[in-house]
Design a protein that fits this description.
Elements (H helix, E strand, L loop, with lengths): L9 H8 L4 E2 L1 E6 L5 E6 L2 E6 L2 E8 L5 H6 L2 E6 L5 H9 L9 E3 L5 E3 L4 E13 L2 E13 L6 E3 L2 E3 L3
Antiparallel strand pairs: 1-11, 2-3, 2-6, 4-5, 5-10, 6-9, 7-8, 9-10, 11-12
Length: 161
Amino acid sequence: MNSISSDIDPSDFREVCGRYATGVTVVTVLDREGRPFGVTANSFTSVSLDPPLVQFSLDRGASVFPVFEATDAFAINVLARDQQILSSHFSKTSDGFDAVPHAAWTSGCPILDGCLANIECTKYAVYDGGDHVIILGRVRRLACTTGEPLLFYRGAYGEFS
């Protein structure tokens, strides 16, 4: 697998992209009935300082895709090293907030307790990203604390050494 090809095998692409270490977030949202949902995402980044914009990518096949498509607000929760259980939980199911300590800010989207950072957004733009959509959010409120991040590398959780 040391060659460059115009016909990219999806498993090779995943392996190559897995060489990029990322942080882990849980992106939360409310549906039209006010029920909370969340999804684990490591495809998060800042985009602009003026206006303050962030983005994440969401699989079109995700069970929560219709909820994100219909909403105007969401929250990014940047997970701390000791929050791997939250990452695992929201990678398997998009609901189940009863046992997840959280608050609500202006939009009502769940703001998870104990995170390194929380960012409340209104939807700014949505772009086609192949089998994903790229969702830009205008930052409306934010908070952060100190601590170590939960990291993801080559298909596994990791930490600084």
